[in-house]
Amino acid sequence: MMFAYSDISKYCAVGALAAVALAASIGDSFAQRARAPGSPGRITLENKRAATLTELKIIGKEGAAAERVIATNLAPGKKITVTLPARIGCIFDLAGTYDDDSTIEVADSNLCKDKALRLVE
User: Which strands make up the sheet holding 116-119, listed edge to edge?
Assistant: First the structure.
């Protein structure tokens, strides 16, 4: 089979375009993974109030958005460390209740940035 010079250049051009398209799709895949929501990992929760924290839950706003109870019956002055699962996201609303019937609500907390939550009066 014989190819003329113009046929070879056509095949080279088609091959080059295919390589560029493949590289672009791989690059997009890596970029999407890099932009995917992460995880706060470990966060520390400290109850600085005079009342016992009966329940604190987080409500995810991105990634594998979910509502999770992360603490129950945390006595005044005590602290705990909580590990959140991977790819859960970073932005959460917090909602909690205390044994003195008071509540706490915080919107749009970035737990990837704020690794320590101190609950105060």
Answer: 79-83, 42-47, 116-119
CB-CB neighbours of 104 under 10 Å? 15
pLDDT digits (tens, 9 = 90+) for 46-70: 999 999 999 999 998 876 667 899 9
Give the long-range contacts of residues 2-11, CB within 8 A, separation 24 or more: none
By CB neighbour count within 10 A (0-12 exposed, 13-18 middle, 19+ buried), where does 46 fall? middle
pTM (predicted TM-score): 0.65
Q: Are 84 and 41 in contact (CB under 8 A)?
A: yes
Token code pair at residue 65: 């958005």
* Eight-state DSSP code of residue 103: E
Hey, how many other C-beta atoms are within 10 angstroms of the C-beta on 45? 20
